[in-house]
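W.,

You were right to be curious about this one. When I first looked at the sequence I had no strong expectations either way, so I just let the prediction run and decided to look at it fresh. Below is the sequence, 386 residues in total, followed by the output.
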Amino acid sequence: MQDLPTTRPRGGPMTVPDQAVPDGALPMMASLRTFQDYHWLMLKVFYDAVLDAHGTAGLAQLAAGMRQAGVFRGTAMRDQPASFVAGRGPAQLVEHWDTAEWQLGAEDGTLRVTAEGPTLTLTLPEAPGRAYLADLLGDVDAVAALAAYWAPLLDGVAEGYGSGVAIEVDDPTVRPWGLRITGPDRVEQAPRLGSRTADPIRMVEVNRRTTGLLAAMQMYVTKALIDTFDASGEETVRRAAYRFGADRGSVIRERILALGKPLTMANFASTDGLQERDPGEAVFVFKERQHISDGAYYLDCTYCPLAEVWATEGPEGLRLGYLFDSSNHRGLFQSYNPSTEVRWTSVKSRGDHVCRFRFTVPEFLTDNDPTPEEFDNAPVHDSRGP
């Protein structure tokens, strides 16, 4: 068995990369960890809601949805430009993986990469997501949730990626935990994971894709639940989506109150609130013209990585996305301040080009706040809608 490093300097021998992250990349690395953790939170809320409403039959559909999400991801990784430049095989699949698990393991120094013949093996101290989920669910339910995640997801990835690649994964109870990716040819090349942190553009791309693939998990699990349980499955999705928002909104609420601040929209939008996850607004992109006050939260989102994924399935994907989108935002904002009125004047998951957030807390509104309609119709130079 051959130990492989996770990067190769240009023109030099294979070496283990320096794990230090450049100062300029630190905010993006923190964002990447946050958005990767959102995957485990998404799994947690669906596992809880599905098990409560549908029992083991529901968990089978959770796994079926994860497998279809894997097919989607594997197909997208097969089709990306890198596959036509570097080829397709175990090392290339890991190097151009579309979420952050292996990247974060490389940065933390916990990922071991070995090769033997045509098989590339990745080893980590435990299954990604286990510690996060164990804190929320306890270890027994954490590994049960991950059993419905890792094996079906990777089976789907292998199918979508093709090129004779097969993936075998350890049970999530195992420590250390690993997966083995086997291709048709001997593995000679190390995946260059550490190189991503040196490229700010690549870091933004990885952040966006990691975030956007939350939509793949949600969309395909939602489809599996509705196909099997119909209206009852749809209600389960709404409950899971609301909890996904509420688990995050309640944390922001506690943080703002601990700082002795009121539960205003301005405090919600601050770096003490939601903006902590994406301080540079590089993942979700908004127009410069905004109106955020104690009582109003008016922003126009022009780029949403989740909507990009929902749209790949056309109107049906957007419909499934909106089931999540509406309940998630209600949970996020109303768990922070129950008086929040959640309203859009357009939203991507309903087929619009821009998400126009026009959320308000009526008790905090003043005469200086435009109504949503006034903000939408005001000239750009209007002092109430800068």
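Here's what jumped out at me. The longest strand covers residues 296-303. And, maybe more interesting for your project: The chain is about 50% helix and 10% strand.

Coffee later to discuss?

I.
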